[in-house]
Amino acid sequence: MRATQNQGQDGKTDGKFTIDDQATKEIIELFLSTEESLNDKKINEVFSEHFFKSNFWLYWRTMFAFEEWHSAMEMRRYIMRFIHHLGGLPDLSALKFTKFNQYESLVLPLVAHLKANGVQFMYNTVVTDIETDISAGRKTAKKILYTQDGKAGTINLTENDFVFVTNGSITESSSLGDHKTPAKINTSPGGSWGLWKKLASKDPAFGKPDKFCGDIDKTKFVSATITTLDDKIPPYIEKICKRDPFAGTVVTGGIVSVKDSNWLLSWTLNRQPHFQKQGKNELVVWFYALFNDVPGNYVKKPITECTGIEIAEEWLYHMGVPENQIHDLAVNSTNTVPVMMPYVMSYFMPRALGDRPLVVPEGSVNLAFIGNFAETERDTVFTTEYSVRTAMEAVYTLLNVDRGVPETFASCFDIRVLLTATRQLLDGKKITEIKLPFILQWLERKGLDKAKGTFVHEMLEKSGLI
Ligand SMILES: Cc1cc2nc3c(=O)[nH]c(=O)nc-3n(C[C@H](O)[C@H](O)[C@H](O)COP(=O)(O)OP(=O)(O)OC[C@H]3O[C@@H](n4cnc5c(N)ncnc54)[C@H](O)[C@@H]3O)c2cc1C
Question: Out of 30, 142, 154, 286, which residue is the most buried by the measure of CB atoms under 10 Å away?
């Protein structure tokens, strides 16, 4: 089940997008907009209630953590970037996973590789500033200022020393609670936002961090790791995902969202064990809620005030556990650790062109920005790939490597993909059955007859649109 309701029952989304004519028109209009025309626009400024009541929006916002007040510009990039995956949204077939959690599957091997190649890591270190010389159209980083274990230090730089700054971080100032303690919010900008703010004060080309980190109420959410400790909860999981969670293969395949949850909660189990050291009888569930400031359906308080036990109780209620067993199972059959991430949705804040610095700002001699808050063409944030792409771009540019950065996947320029996506968005209806957006209207009126016997007609047939 991609969605549930009524305490563990099928949410009856039935793989459908339920997008009406008006909502279809709004999606196509967004797709056809220029990026510039969406400067600072929010999603709720380009979509109406027609769109927000669709299953499409339920799948979309729960899978990607979009809120109505987030960036329409980024929403458009997502639609274009993942258009070939639209058909996989309702059943999660679009998703791929690493074998274990991403720290063990990606970060540790990379760290080992880098160490073996002479990279020195400095832990407990915060870069507090980078002194720069900005004059005559040139921007040169001169000195790194940092504190290590609270002690100040500096690194002097020449023009042949390159500085790659990850400006901003969505996990900055995150704080953990535990089974019996809520995760307390930490509103400090921390090292990553602190450094970006310092740099931004030196030159407008270094971007506007406050656009992303300046409104924590719009960027925070609480998530939790729920570890089940015995055989009492797994049958409820199996009932919903129809797979044995201990089988060692993908379990839910992506998040399961609870349609009628006040918190709009979602949960997921990847392939188990998710951590190499996990006990054989344990399952690790990731849980998050999109609405942070409203009381739950079972636990009558907002998730931000909840202990791990209370979060587990709300989850078990929506899993269909009988109410007289919920407390006991939450306390004794789980270990639940909440985390408050004040900036987790900051990638999605409404932005205008220029709010993120270019990977290599104009005139920069030895300073580049990498990660999801550096500007690169067409790629979408909240992805590891964005960080990899900007890092490649930064290195190839500053070090003059004569090699192209692979293009962001270009499926939105493939007419076959566009036609198939259109059919999927229309829940399989033919173009003759719906009130058409203008391009398709034109196609139907003028084009279809003329197209007969051509490969355009063949493509339309193959896509299922006629
Ligand atoms: C809950 C969640 C789910 C996600 N799901 C997916 C997914 O399914 N697929 C996907 O592709 N991506 C996903 N992402 C996004 C992806 O994890 C991030 O985009 C990616 O990890 C960012 O990597 P990064 O190295 O650019 O930045 P970060 O991981 O933020 O790393 C930056 C590092 O630099 C450090 N730093 C910054 N400034 C300073 C300073 N001044 N001094 C010292 N240190 C500093 C920070 O402490 C941090 O360690 C998810 C993220 C989250 C939080």
Answer: 30
Q: Which atom of ligand 1 is nearest to the CA of 371?
A: 26
* Three-class DSSP category at 191: helix
The CATH classification of domain 221-341, taken from the options 3.40.50.1580, 1.10.3430.10, 3.30.9.80, 3.10.290.10: 3.30.9.80
Q: Residue of the nearest CA to atom 36 in ligand 1?
A: 192
pLDDT at residue 455, as a whole number: 78
> From the CB of 165, is ligand 1 less than 6 Å away?
no
* Ligand 1 neighbourhood includes 177 CB (under 6 angstroms): no
Q: Is 92's C-beta closer than 6 angstroms to any atom of ligand 1?
A: no
For residue 274, the CA-to-ligand 1 centroid distance in Å is 19
- How does residue 437 score in pLDDT terms, banded at 50, 70 and 90? low
Task: Name the residue at shortest CA distance from atom 39 of ligand 1.
Answer: 192
Atom of ligand 1 nearest to the CA of 391: 26
pLDDT tens, position by position, 379-435: 999 999 999 999 999 999 999 999 999 999 999 999 889 989 988 998 988 877 776
Q: Where are the domains of the chain?
A: 122-177+186-215+350-379+388-398, 221-341
Distance in Å from the first CA to the final CA of the chain: 30
What per-residue string of b and e applies to 442-460 under the rule 16 or more CB within 10 Å gives b?
A: ebbeebeeebeeeebbebb
Which of 391, 399, 401, 384 lies closest to 370, judged by CA?
391
Q: What whole-number distance in Å separates Cα of residue 360 and Cα of residue 390?
A: 9
Please give the model's pTM, rounded to 2 decimal places: 0.93
Q: In the chain, count of helices (H) and strands (E)?
A: 17, 13
What mean pLDDT do residues 310-332 have? Answer: 98
